[in-house]
Amino acid sequence: MPANHSVQSRLGAYRRALSGRDFRLLWLGSSLSLVGDGMTFVALTWLVLSQPGGTGRLGLLTVCYTLPVFVGGLIAGPVLDRFDKRHVLAVDSVVRGAAMASIPIAAAVGEVPAVLPFVVAGVYGLFKMVPLAGFPSAIPDLVEPEDLDAANALESLAFSLAGMVGPALGGLLIAGLGSEAVLAFDALSYAVFALTALAVRRPLAPDSPSVPANTAGPPPADERRTGGDAHGPGVRLRIGTLLRDRVLVGTTLAFMAFNVAAGMLLVVGPWLAKTQLAGGAQTLGVLLAALSAGELAGAAAAGAWTPRSRPVRTIALVQLVAATGFLLVFTSPHTIGVAAGFLVIGLFSAPMTVWAQSLRMARIPAPLRGRGFSILRTLMQATPPIGAALVTPLLGSGRLGTAAIAMALIAALPAVLLLADRRS
């Protein structure tokens, strides 16, 4: 039957992507590092919540975790386009691994300074865009063109699975071993990622032919049209062209707004676990795991089915449905209802990421991938601090209902505007 053939074809694309040694290595190393990061967010938030004035300091931690992404993203793009991405990813892993290790080391020799979690969060945010832009910009060089959707879905699946396992495991380990042990594991995961990046055989430098690893022949037409030097005037012109692309700009603005609501949720979730729901750190792990479980299922579905007509409209529809999940915060103090909201948000936000990333890969020329993905993802990742700053005073005054409505409206409005645009 045609439906069965379609599913088998998509599963075959997953197998082909993972059969490539270099893509498999980079994907596995990235996935393990993401598990460590999922554990780390729980560990850092619990360290801060355990200090005096924890609720107010939690908002500051979220800002430190996310605000430096904007500065780091502006730097990461040019670096990724100028140097071999394998080496850039390895250096990033070493730096952030050392930052994570500083807290367990400080705990082992004495006492963790109150400011250190905020410094570590800042370092994490500053370098966060390196793998977020580096891995997707390397994907077209590591898989066949027809397997790009599957490879993008695998990246999203890794985020979702790691986000599901990491927070839940982190919550359990904090109860038994403490936050410092969790951060030590994250430092180790960074070391593994650095080794896997260096073990990739295919050069990922900008002057390498931009063709899939298993093919030969001249560079694709879009690369030949860029005018030669990846750092010359033609590239600068095309950066401006990308920013004038209606599809790229429209979807990016929609994601930026959705991430404002997501930034609010990063504060609301720990606050609920600490003050409204039973279970403490383990409940926080459950909420974050529910979010990631939804993302896992949503990414798997997005990889199995890709909208071929009017993809922007389809992206807007799933964003609108995802926005309804924020309203389930109203079910507090019932953990099941709140967790269901987190699940809905993840389930319908993951396809947005997969399908939009495929759109970007089709529209960004090869020599601009580092800067293109860095600029767009930086813009999207820079907005959660706005949400964190907005929601902190609401929670401080106990206005959880106002926070829930604000999150839903902020997430839904850009989707409504995209749907109203007849060109989408």
From TrEMBL:
Q: Does the keyword ATP-binding apply?
A: no
Q: Which Pfam families match?
A: MFS_1 (PF07690)
Residues crossing the lipid bilayer are 25-49, 55-76, 115-135, 156-175, 247-272, 284-305, 336-355, 401-420
Subcellular localization is given as:
Cell membrane
Answer whether the UniProt record assigns the keyword Heme to this protein: no
What range(s) does the Major facilitator superfamily (MFS) profile domain occupy?
Answer: 22-423
* Name of the protein in its database record: MFS transporter
Species of origin reads Nonomuraea mangrovi
